[in-house]
Each structure stands twice: as C-alpha cells, then as structure tokens.
C-alpha cells in the first residue's frame, strides 16, 4: 500500500464526481429524448439522483480540499465536547430560575 497526499486523493474524487455528474446529465437527456412515458420517468429520476449524489460528494470534497471543513469542530480550535459556551450557560441558568419560580409561586 502506498501513501499519497490526501489532496491528491480528494482531487481524484472531485474528478470522479464531475464524471458521474456529466453521466447523470446524459442519462437525463437520453430519457427526455426517448419520449416513452415509463422509461422517461425512470431515466429522469435515475439521472437526477446521479447528478445530486455527484454534486453533494464533489462539494464535500472541495470543502475538505480548501480546508473549510472543520470536522464538526469550531474554528477556534475547541470542540463542542470541551464544555458549554458562556452564553448557553447563562441561558440555562435563566431557564432553571424561571422553572424554580414557577413552582414556588404556585398556591
């Protein structure tokens, strides 16, 4: 097994996604040109799904290449598992206080 640069691998995946997208477009066009009702619908759906899959996969790979994909982490370097943010803590404290007052003020 040889090691390659992750960027090279991702670029290869982007190229494959572009080819699958164009193939899906071709399937969609062939479905429209054939003009046979059940076949047109099947080929149209198949071509659309191929294009959708290829576009989503290619966009995700491009995002990873550009470095904007943080993998579920915040850009500041701290993940969500490190603790609640200060704003969220204040919000929860206010909610708990309201809940406590609601039960204490009952007759």
From TrEMBL:
Keywords: Membrane, Transmembrane, Transmembrane helix
Biased composition (Basic residues): 75-89
Keyword Transmembrane helix attached: yes
Keyword Acetylation assigned: no
Pfam families: DUF3040
Transmembrane segments: 17-34, 40-60
Entry-linked InterPro entries: DUF3040 (IPR021401)
Positions of the UniProt region annotated as Disordered: 65-89
Protein name: Membrane protein putative signal peptide
């Amino acid at each position: 097994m040889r090691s390659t640069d992750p960027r090279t691998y991702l670029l290869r995946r982007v190229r494959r996604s572009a080819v699958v997208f164009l193939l899906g477009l071709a399937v969609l066009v062939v479905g429209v040109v054939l003009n046979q009702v059940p076949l047109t619908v099947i080929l149209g759906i198949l071509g659309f799904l191929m294009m959708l899959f290829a576009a989503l996969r290619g966009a995700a790979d491009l995002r990873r290449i550009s470095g904007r994909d943080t993998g579920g982490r915040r850009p500041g370097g701290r993940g969500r598992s490190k603790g609640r943010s200060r704003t969220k803590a204040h919000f929860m404290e206010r909610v708990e206080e309201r809940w406590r007052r609601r039960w204490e003020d009952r007759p």
